[in-house]
Amino acid sequence: MKKKYSLIVLAFIVLLTSGSCKKFITEDPQTALTEEEVFKSLDNIEPLVLGLYTSWRNTKKDRGGFIFTMGTDEAQQGAYQVRTDDRQAGIDRYNGFLSASNTALAEQWNSRWPVISAAAKVVYALGLNSEESERKNIILGEASFIRAALTFEMTQYWGEIPIIDQAKFKEYGTKRQPLNMVYNFIIADLENAVKYLPVSQTDKRRATKGAAQALLGKVYLYAPEASGAKDYAKARDMFKQVVENGGYSLVPKYADLWDPTKQNTTESIYEFKFNNVYPDNNQTQWQMGSRSLAEVDQYCYFGGYDLMVPTKYCYQTTADGGVWEDGDVRKNESIRYDFTYKGKVPTLNPAFGGDELDPHVKKFEDPRTEGTLSFWLSGKNIFYLRYADILLCYAETLNETGATSQAVDLINSTIRTRAWNGNLPADKRWNAGMSQQDFRTNIMDERMRELCFEGWRRMDLIRTGKLVELAKQRNKWTKESGSIQEYHNRYPIPLQEIKQNDDISESDQNPGYSNN
Amino acid sequence: MSFFTIKGTVRWYALLIFLILQCSFTVFAQNSINVAGRVTGKDDKLPIPGVSVKVKGTGTGISTDKDGKFALNTTSNSTIVFTSVGYVTQELPASTTMNVSLVPEDNNLEEVTVVGVTIKKKDLTGSVAGITDKTISELPVTNVNQAMQGRIAGVLVQSNDPRPGGGVSIKVRGNNSIKFGADPIYVVDGLVIEQAFNTINPDDIASIDVLKDASATALYGSRGANGVILITTKKGKSGEGKIEYSAWVGVQSFTRNLSYLNAQQIVDLRLDAYANKYMDGNPTADRQAYINTLLGPNSIAFGADELAVYNRGESYNWLDQITKKGIQQNHTATFSKGGEDGSMYVSFNYTDQGGLLKTSNYKRYGGQINLDQKIKPWFKIGTNTGFSRTEESYIDGGVFGIAANANPLLPIDDKITYLSWKGIQSTDLYNPIRSLTIDGKGKQNRLLTSNYAVATPIPGLNIRTGISFDVRSQDYFNYIPKDLGQSLRNSYNGRATQKKESWMNWQWDNSVSYDKSYGKHNFSGLVSFGLTQNNYNYNQIDASGFATDDFSYKYLGGAYLKEQFQLGSDFVTNSLISYVARFNYNYDNKYFATLTGRYDGSSRFGNGNKWGLFPSLALAWDISKESFFEGINVDALKLRAGYGIAGNQNIPNFAYRSLYRPVFSDNSVTYVSDGRLGNPNLVWEKQKQLNLGVDVALLNSRLSFSADYFVIHNDDLLMERTLSTTSGFKNTIDNVGSLLNKGVEFNVNAEIIDQEDFKWDFGVNLSSYKNKITKLYGSVDAIYNYGGFTGVDIQREGNLFLNQSLNSIYTYKFEKIAQQSDLERIKDIDYGGRVIHPGDIIPVDVNGDNKIDDADRIVVGKKDPKFYGGFSTNFAYKNLSLNAVFNYNYGGKAISGLYEGLLNGSGEYAGITDVLDRWTPENTNSNIPRAYTGSGRYGVGETDYAIQNTSFLRMAALSLSYNFTEGFVKKAKMSNLRVYVTGRNLFTITKYKGYDPEGGDGYPTSKMFVAGINVGF
């Protein structure tokens, strides 16, 4: 009996140890790639980089795409929204709600780092990759470009920020780095991008050499003095290459820039690609349109919910103290003044905020949705780098490097000529004898006329030191609140970051902000 | 990889034999006596004929006669053994008069199937509590959890979803895990199941046992950390075959709704709010003149239609448009028979629950077949197999909330797309009446089958193999018609969704167990080996653009917006290997010891961290069996102690890896991270549990009492924590810290009156626990829970703070409602952009730095109750019995978002009548903030102002039943007949201001009146 029992136990033990244990409890994901797999081959890295373009693009859509434009001298929140959400209102009011716990800003901070970090991993992985070098280099250029573009945006608004470099992760960690390191890092990335990116790409979502050059020029121009990277001459040279050898040109009709059937024109250096199908729509019209029209019809292409409207300065004529001169065709292409819909002018619901039928942002209207799609599905491409912007920047650097008359001439012959439909009247022509200082003032208005709502205004105000002065003058809510200070040139580091990032503590907060 | 080597076994056997030799041959002087008596059944008191009455250890024996009587001659120190089929065997010392009552086996299920092995219930040495079919049948319930509610100490069952077929949350001994797997596992006839517990028909359940401490749950090792609920289904009973039918019908309705402001009150409030705001900015203006403009044409405060309703004196209740009375019914028919070599049990069940919201409905059809059969004297096979089909009609999730909080100034209208306030449509407020046309259906099939074969080559040795399957498929269908806001807003032109999910879980267990008694040494041991695999896959299609609404979700091929098609699918498998060894020993049924070890390997962890060992030891001492206890009037006194480690592996799959998935966007495929940082260092969550318990029975067992004390150290808590996005990821799964959980549980049962015609018994249980986070990873003292609209707000709940409860509430502290006299005092405090006027909330500047910021947020309370439990009582007079079941909960706190919202005081949204007593310059003694519109002051939800007390006492059930007399029943050719009426949730006493302190704020709780019948043939 004993023997029999032992045999049974023995059989049992054989069963127990039958070797395949480890295999049985090793389950690999059947529907996902692991990080090792993704970064192993170019065939996987390439779609990953395409994904980064998409993630970057997504920071520009919907509400989040306009957070940085609010609180400037060209745009402000709609009256209904500003009174319903204190924190978001803080972006325009520059009051106690513009603080570390401002969620609207924290969202922007949080949405960008994963893109930067993934781009950094690509750069690192490509360094270890030994596949075909041409393709590899293009991808390296793209990843460098994406990382640079986002890092540049972050440092413009937040100042000293972490540098994400996989190779130096031990050294850098995720602490805030001095401005000169941050800018040198951006410049190095862009130099790589210029080196490796091709002149043109068939997939318009992908960056080109011209885009890298244009952005590098902007980095030299926009870098704060404290970074030591500001260099008008280098900026000028970079812009010159784009202007003279980039193969770009202004489209003859300003209106064509906003026609959804005419995208990726010769004027586009880089634009974010959208369409009318979720998730590639951009919802901008939902944010920019008028509530009064939304009330009439959700499929009216200029309806929406008034997140952001132009300031008076931005929509009025010079006669009324605004920015627009007579006959400038850009005015009516950029801003909607007429709300007549199907023959009727909607009435203003008295319970609304009051500015629903005041002029609205028009650049993002997508007439393709009219009558068939909700304006939530608006999906025109959104410009990032436009040739006109580079011309303006180039002129600015010419002015700063002492070539004011050349700068005036450039503006007259390109930007302003087109603004008057190819026929610039003499009284609208800038005077070649304009002083360097006057040019500085005028170019800022010209930039507003040409580029309003395209996302560069806050940076322009910060770099020229005009944010406080002009926002206080021209932004209704900033003026009403009266609390904007110099320290508002930077945004507060989000509270969540301070709490979760071991390398950033409360004392690292930007000056002026409390951690509430 | 085994604990059990041959060499070890032999050695161990030698030790045992040695012990036996030491103790078993004791010789006493012996006298001859005559023993006589009668054997009856414990419940029915009827004589049992044919009981085998034997003198233990000898061949002497006799059977009882038709009156249950017997007589025999034996020695005075001998033990008499009473054995009868269908009854629990009893051993008693011989005495001259022996009137014995035998306990039917069915009421005291001796055995329970745990992982692939059947063990004696009394061998589950640790803290085990349970209920049997008798208790379950007292309440008309349709799912397992309802049946346990308030009945078992240490088990907190909360109904938080009153929708038909809605789920119930269950916690054993409070929270032990943070996020993953905080719920216990369910083991049905040995098969571990997950989710959809309401597919099990409570009428099929013979017993539910809750294993609460590690010495009991250690058998489940990696999965036992949050308790184990063992469900044993019924078996055919020995003796004559039985047919039983039970049915009940109930009418359900909401217990109460909140007292919402009506149209006139909303108007008054809004006028007050606007005037207050206006006067803040224009202190010298004419308030009444301003109010008059608000009531005039072109009002900035009212839509023209609202004023028209106001002037007509009307008010509209939208909720009435979507609610109804719910009729529920349940029918079960069972057929059973047992015999020498096997038994069978077959049942059919039908449940139909009409919901309280229009179009919502839940139906379940089910069947159960339990068979066991001896094929050879030494070989037995069996199956417990159940099938269920559920069919549900859903109502769109947002409908109730929108209807309950709808504008009373808005006339009922099924034509409008969105509801409005102030004449402004909100695209989030879909017209609830129209939403009723959303066609939502859910269908589920489930087969649960446990099958086994046992060989018993020598007495006491069982070799068992069992294979079990849980096969489940679930379909979800939904169609949003074209003209609904849900469709218009996103330009769907009709939206159909089909989701099909399927689960295939199998479990293969093999065990060898051995029972043996040598004299007073009783030994049992088992070793087992098991494999478990869970397979899941789903596919989902969302299609838009339908020419007609007529085909609902059924014809996807007709959808024309091809670009809007969305496809989803996934396949996931995870696997578990487990080895178990368990040894029980008791000496003379006085001293008990159980040693268990389980070794688990799980696919959810990375290489090097897959395996975990979960040992436990339990000891018990039955003092009442000691000789020094003779003569003391105590029927039982048992001390228990147990210590063990249980684990938790219930984390998302592949948490140890960073994953990337292809995403199709804008005509090309991109790879995108899912945002989670893989953590290769993840290890099991480990709970070290200590349990001390005592069981006492007094006064002929009419009073019984048990108490348990537990201490649980939970290390390596698993949690998803958000990361600084500079890491490139949003979150990671991590072992974040340690938790200490201590508590006590009491259970008292008393048969207060026990007479022939009148019986009264009373049972009460009370549980209490306290938990504290004792360690967090690294040097952090807090882990915050971020959420909200943008996902970056620190939430009030779900944060972890060192030395605080897991369930803390974290926010600013409410100081008081500001009075004019306070303004001077607070004028220098920086409220971060807010301005405080008399009647507004003042938060406490905790650190006194004249600035309200992050540093002033503190833990203001915790959600854990101080104690909770239930009590029940039963009166029986002749054939009539009255049964009442109560649940209670004391000392917990909760946030009621609903109530906070209703206190907004703007009149621009729904409000509650508490606002009528708001602060005004004339009513400064109020604790309700003043009316105000717009922002700029502290909202009700920003401080702990409206944190609610969740204490409650609820009468869960009151039941009156009548058992027809035997005579009547026999005449009607039945074996039993019982009819009853029951009221469920008849009343709840609470201060909670939301819907229900237990169920939360999604819906009010419901009550039900039920009439039922049980009949047997």
From TrEMBL, chain A:
Residues 488-516 are annotated as: Disordered. Keywords: Cell outer membrane, Membrane, Signal. Residues 507-516 have a biased composition (Polar residues). Residues 321-513 form the RagB/SusD domain. Residues 101-221 form the SusD-like N-terminal domain. It is found in: Cell outer membrane. Gene3D superfamilies: 1.25.40.390. Signal peptide: none annotated. InterPro entries: SusD-like_N, SusD_RagB_dom, TPR-like_helical_dom_sf. Its main location: membrane. Belongs to the SusD family. This is RagB/SusD family nutrient uptake outer membrane protein. The lineage of its organism: Bacteria, Pseudomonadati, Bacteroidota, Sphingobacteriia, Sphingobacteriales.
